[in-house]
Amino acid sequence: MTAVQRILPDRCCGLIIDLQGFFLSQIDKRLRSAIKTNTANFLRLLGYFQIPIVVTLERPVDVKGSLSNEIGKHLNDGARTFEKSFFDVCKDKKIKTHLGGLKRRQVLVAGCETDVCVLQSCLGLLSLGYQVYVIEELIFSSSSNVQAATARMKDQGVVFVSYKSLYYELVESVDGPPNQKGKRSFPDELPDTALR
User: Fold this and answer.
1) Residues 146/69/31/113 CA torsion (nearest 10 deg)
2) What's phi and psi for 79, nearest 5 deg?
3) Which pTM does this prediction carry?
4) What pLDDT, on a 0 to 100 scale, did the predictor assign at position 174?
5) Sign of CA dihedral 113, 116, 119, 123
C-alpha cells in the first residue's frame, strides 16, 4: 500500500519562479491581473502558516525586473530572494543549498514560464527527492500551448493542485486552521478560491 502524500505546513515551502515584469508583460492584461492577485493571496496564505518562501529572479534583473511591490509586500519574514542564470533553480548552488537547509521536502510552485523554468525546476526538484506541487492557477507562459510541459511534469510525478484545494488542505476544518501557539487569527477576508 502506498502512503498518501498530504501537504503539511511544517513540511513545505513555497517557490515563486521568475514572477517579473518582463514575463508578466507577455500575457494579456486580464490574466496578468489574476496572476498578481492570486499570487499575493498565495503568499498571504503561506505567511499565516509561517511557511518559508523562496523567490527567484531571472538575470538580468535590470532588464527583466523584480517582484512587483503589490506581490512582494506579502512576503513573510522567512522569505528569501535569489537571482539566477539557470532555468532549473536546482542548478544554482545558493538556491539548492538554501532549499536543502529549510529541511522541507514538499515544494509548492508558482511562477513562469510553465514550459521553461517551471518545467526544468520541477524536474530538478524531483531529481533531488522533493515532493513537488504546482498551483495550477499560479503558473503561466508566453506560449499558448504548454500541454506537453504539463504532461511531462505530471508523468514525472509533479502533482497539480488548485489554489482552493491547497487552501482547504492547509486550513483543515470548518472551524479554521488548528490553533497554534503564537499565531494571529486566520484572516477572514483571505479568499479560498483563485481568480480565473
Assistant:
1) -10
2) -85, 145
3) 0.95
4) 85
5) negative
Instruction: Please answer whether residues 54 and 130 qualify as being in contact, where contact means their C-beta atoms are separated by less than 8 angstroms.
Output: no
Tell me what the pLDDT averaged over the chain comes to: 94
Residue 173 has pLDDT above 90, yes or no: no
- The H-assigned helical ranges of the chain are 21-24, 29-48, 61-64, 69-72, 93-102, 119-127, 147-156, 163-171
Rounded to the nearest angstrom, the gap between the alpha carbon of residue 193 and the centroid of all alpha carbons in its chain is 16
For residue 180, tell me if it sits in a domain. no
**Residue of 186, 128, 188 whose CA lies nearest to 9:** 186
State phi, psi for 66 to the nearest 5 degrees: -105, 180
Is residue 128, in this structure, part of any structural domain at all? yes
pLDDT tens digits, 127-155? 999 999 999 999 999 999 999 999 999 99
- Domain with residue 68: its CATH number is 3.40.50.850
C-beta atoms surrounding 147 within 10 Å: 10
Per-residue pLDDT of 101-127, as tens digits, reads 999 999 999 999 999 999 999 999 999
Question: Can you give the residue range of the structural domain that contains 164?
Answer: 12-171
The CA-based angle 65-162-122, given to 5 degrees, is 55
Q: How many domains does the chain have?
A: 1
Phi, psi of 102 (to 5 degrees): -70, -25
Read off the C-alpha cell for 153.
511534469
Cα Rg of the chain, angstroms:
16
